[in-house]
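ok trying again, last paste got cut off:
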Amino acid sequence: MIPIQIDISDTVEESVLGKEETDSLRMYILDRVMSEFKDKWLDGIATNLHSTRKEYQKGIFQEQIDDFNVVVGLTPRLSPLALMIEDGASTFDIKTGLENSAKKKIGKNGQWYITVPFRLATAGTLGEAESFAGVMPKPIDKLAKALGPGESIKLDNIPKELQGLGKNNTSGYDHKFNIFEGLQRVEAGSATEKHGEYVGFRRVSANSDPASWIHPGLEARDLMGKAIEGIDVGDIVDKAINEFLENR
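nice, full thing came through this time. structure:
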């Protein structure tokens, strides 16, 4: 939350406004400033965020304190990711969050585990939907589209140059599986309109390596701050005052 304070005392004095008109002017200015700010903020969200856009939007809230005070900001109540995107976040362990998930299960050994699905977008798309983990390279796209019901991509079928297991560059952990191995085609959509989606799965448990799900952190996007910088509050206020006085 970034405070914006507006002083219209000079206008009230020069234009000899009574209390009722003064209150109306304050509300009119507040509405104009908030409208300009939110438009700029939403434009910034649409332009700068892709896979995390919906999670960020979950954190947006607006609270009307009284007729002349409105609070607009981000809350972690529905998604802690919103503030992490806005303010940035240092390295963190995704496994900790998964352990606290309501979707985790307890195995026969008494240890927790959870299966994490990830969707890959087809080659040539931006993969901006909330649940897309990335975009398939063209050779993987070709393999995926040839899959039949119940089939999955086998490591031996993956081109040699894409068979690498990869590494977590933050923790140095060497992955045990190729990200494309086991990828399946599943039917999605409505009862009347179906389409194929490409999904892989990874099992995480209490026994997973402590370094296996380390996130590198997030760079602060400061979308609220940039939205404030992108509007001229003084100009908006001046125009609002002129419009109000012209229609007295």
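cool. The helical segments are 9-14, 19-48, 53-58, 81-87, 94-99, 138-145, 223-229, 233-246. The two ends are 33 Å apart (CA to CA).
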